[in-house]
Amino acid sequence: RQLILSNEIEDPDLMAEALSGKLGRKVELLVPKRGEKAELVDAVLEGEAMASGARHGDNVLPSLFGGAVLVSPSDPTRYRQLAVGCELHVALVVPRVQVLTRDARALLPGQVPLSGAVGNAAEFAFLLDALARGDAEAAGHAIMQDTLVEPLRARLVPCYDAVRQAALAAGAYGCALSGSGPTLFALCRNAQSAQHVAREMQAASRNAGIEAGAHAVRACSQGARTLSQTLD
User: Fold this and answer.
1) Global pTM value
2) 10 Å Cβ neighbour count for 110?
3) Between vectors from CA 160 to CA 154 and to CA 161, what angle results, nearest 5°?
């Protein structure tokens, strides 16, 4: 039997021997090797490649590190963690609609108008500024200014317009697709507002004929971490 410890102890062999005698079977004490999260970047990128067919970091690196993370599209091992100046309270709705990343990408054109590219770049800069200043309301406005990608991907989520309108009517600062969807997220004033907005978004999806799950969460600044240890 293996017993996983969170920290090293003195005389682990002696402790294992004592436990083995008490339980009547061999006990092995293990302490997981701890390292820097940066050492896991290649592994999580390979996992993304297996799951979606592309070695990109816009999903897995924020999940690994937490908070806001900038990732290079040409070299996902080049990334930067950004400081966020406030807690982000988020309402999520997950419509039961299958959206494959490769299908969502296939909708995107190979070229875009210069004005659209300039506009999206400017709004992204405003989003980064809002996050750094801790202005959730300004961040909510910025996430709704995409004129190039989201309008195309929204076609894959039939309840998109209804859910977005419901979020804003319920007091959300802004609402947008999470990646290629189908999840939509809304930035909210506080935890109570996020719960209310999530319920309204879920109701809007159901009224549009699509069952959906709903969650009210706080954006995690720590990323992947061990919450508890289990016995084998």
Assistant:
1) 0.78
2) 4
3) 110
Task: List pLDDT tens digits, range 131-154.
Answer: 999 999 999 999 999 999 999 999
With cut-offs at 50, 70 and 90, classify the pLDDT of residue 222: confident
Q: Specify the amino acid at residue 172.
A: A
Q: Are strands 79-82 and 68-71 parallel, antiparallel or unpaired?
A: antiparallel
Q: How far apart are CA 85 and CA 88, in angstroms?
A: 9
- CA of residue 171 relative to chain centroid, distance: 22
29 contacts: CB under 8 Å, gap ≥ 6: 2, 3, 5, 9, 12, 15, 16, 19
Q: Which residues pair with 30 in a beta bridge?
A: 4
Q: How many CB atoms lie within 10 A of CB 180?
A: 22
How far is the C-alpha of 104 from the C-alpha of 54, rounded, in Å?
13
Asked if the model's pLDDT at residue 79 lies above 70, the reply is yes
Q: Which residues pair with 156 in a beta bridge?
A: none
What is the percentage of the chain residues whose pLDDT exceeds 70? 91
- For residue 156, give the DSSP letter: G
* Nearest-angstrom CA–CA distance, 18 and 182: 53
Give the three-class secondary structure for 20: helix
DSSP letters, 26-58, are --EEE-PPP--GGGGHHHHHHHHHHHHSS---T
**Contact indicator for 214, 93 with CB cutoff of 8 Å:** yes
Residues in Cβ contact with 208 at an 8 Å cutoff, skipping those fewer than 6 apart? 158, 159, 162, 163
Least confident of 47-51, 126-130, 148-152: 47-51
